[in-house]
Amino acid sequence: MRPNQPQKGGPPANADIVSPQVQLIDAEGENHGNVDTIIAKEMAREAGLDLVAISPNAKPPVCKILDLGKHKYQAQKKAAEARKRQKIIDVKEIKLRPNIDTHDYEVKMRSIVKFLKEGDKVKVTMRFRGREMAHQELGMNLLLKVRDEMESISKVESTPRSEGRQMVMVLASSK
């Protein structure tokens, strides 16, 4: 790139290639070896295409004769497809209390199973209030029970640990 010139998107092409020689690959994919840049640009102009630096940092730069607009469009499509395919993993939180009723516990467990099957991580938080702080072993036992019940569909990413008035454990899907 020339100094004082704003950089445009995409690989260097045509006038942006300043190396005296390039390794040239023509439109059919045939390697012509090292060629003077002026001759390479002339060949691209005759073919009605662009001279594009595929590997600009190589010595000499590897350039290919192709349609730059089409090349940029295909690269953009490929990037969009990759973004579409990636799964964003959320961390869902389930809050429990040490003296939770059995039915409430079962409802929470169904939610954990659903979140894990969707591929999300689950942060299980055990909250202590007032005198419950004196019996943290009850909360720890409940978190260990959750861990054991979810063992077949999850792996423990973070073991139960105390954080002030709460205990936290993180489960991740084992897929």
Can you walk through the features of this model?
The two termini are 47 Å apart. It is built from four helices and eight strands; from the N terminus they run E-E-H-E-E-H-E-H-E-H-E-E. It has helices at residues 37-47, 68-85, 102-117, 136-149; strands spanning 21-25, 31-36, 50-55, 62-66, 91-96, 121-127, 154-163, 166-173. With 175 residues, the chain is of the alpha/beta class. 34% of the residues lie in helices and 30% in strands. A four-stranded mixed beta sheet has the order 2-1-4-3. The chain has a four-stranded mixed beta sheet with strand order 5-6-8-7, with helices on one face.
Anisotropy-based shape: rod-shaped
Name the poorly predicted regions. Answer: 1-6
Which strand order spans the largest sheet, edge to edge or round the barrel?
A: 2-1-4-3
Q: Evaluate the radius of gyration.
A: 30 Å
Rounded to the nearest angstrom, the distance between the terminal CA atoms is 47 Å
The count of strands amounts to 8
Give descriptors for this structure.
four-stranded mixed sheet, 175 residues, 8 strands, disordered N terminus, rod-shaped, alpha/beta, single chain
Write the layout of secondary structure elements.
Elements: E1 21-25, E2 31-36, H1 37-47, E3 50-55, E4 62-66, H2 68-85, E5 91-96, H3 102-117, E6 121-127, H4 136-149, E7 154-163, E8 166-173
Parallel strand pairs: 1-4, 5-6
Antiparallel strand pairs: 1-2, 3-4, 6-8, 7-8
